[in-house]
Amino acid sequence: MMSAADEHEAAITELRELLELDEEQVAQIHRILAERQQFVQRTWEQLRPEVQNAMRQVHSDIGELLHPDQRGRFHE
Predict the structure, then answer these.
(1) 44-69, pLDDT tens digit by residue?
(2) Count of domains observed in the chain
(3) From its phi and psi, is residue 39 left (phi > 0), alpha (psi between -120 and 50) or beta?
(4) What would you measure as the largest C-alpha separation in the chain, in angstroms?
């Protein structure tokens, strides 16, 4: 999984090439992404437990419908 910084750099590289951004635009995009990343991080920290619980429930629900031989492979 890419870090947020790596994702930002990849996005900026793509935008720079596609839109022929100047250095000032690139700097401003860096600032925007950094500011929004803080919000995303705070929001994710609040939602993480709920998302993890939902994913555990999905895993459990799928496990329940599988045949015993399938369950072992599923949990590997």
Answers:
(1) 999 999 999 999 999 999 999 999 99
(2) 1
(3) alpha
(4) 60
